[in-house]
Amino acid sequence: MNNEINAIAEEVKNCTKCPLYETRKNAVPGEGDSSTKIMFVGEAPGFYEDVQGRPFVGAAGKLLTELIENILCIPRPSVFITNIVKCRPPENRDPLPNEIETCSPYLDRQIMLIKPKVLVTLGRHSSSYILSKAGIKIKGITDVRGRIFSLFMFDILLNVMPTLHPAAALYNPQLKVQIEEDFRKLKNFVNTSL
Ligand code: URA
Ligand code: SF4
Predict the structure, then answer these.
(1) Which residue minimizes the CA distance to atom 4 of ligand 2?
(2) pLDDT over 70, % of the chain
(3) Does residue 129's CB lie within 6 angstroms of at least one atom of ligand 1?
(4) How do strand 31-32 and strand 80-83 relate by DSSP bridges?
(5) Cα distance between residue 8 and residue 146, in whole Å
(6) What is the pLDDT of residues 70-109, one digit of tens each?
(7) What is the distance in A from the centroid of ligand 1 to the CA of 83?
(8) How many domains does the chain divide into?
């Protein structure tokens, strides 16, 4: 399976399917343990991710890493972390619908290979992309955050937990409390139900 995950990473690094390849420094395929039970999906690489070719290595990544290590109490390399869109949108703008449509098959293939028990979707874009695949339309992240949706999708029974994007929680103490609350729920679910 690792070989297949690596093969996707190679495809992503050489991909020219959408215009974002023209402005990227490095594509960011994702990283971590492909035999994990827990997979995280963000939106798109930012400045530091583009420079390093690794997901969640900037300020938001620091918070995500802390949540994984201090609340889930597991090392970051033991989970798999990726994004819907694998190349950085200029100026960190939101990815366009056609960029999501063109790039998301890579994510779909990663999910089908890794077959996580829980998919944690970080922020509205990632949550609405994944839940819409199961026919669930969301208005915003507040209604769905911290809930576990058990869905048959990608040929597996997948538990999806939407939460806030760590970038949103970074400078907002109230949202930080909420994302921490969601991670405690996640830990409880992982410990009792998996
Ligand atoms: N924000 C994201 O959504 N993904 C990253 O990889 C980094 C920041
Ligand atoms: Fe290819 Fe995705 Fe990068 Fe577009 S964003 S060039 S589809 S890897």
Answers:
(1) 18
(2) 99
(3) no
(4) antiparallel
(5) 30
(6) 999 999 999 999 999 999 999 999 999 999 999 999 999 9
(7) 7
(8) 1
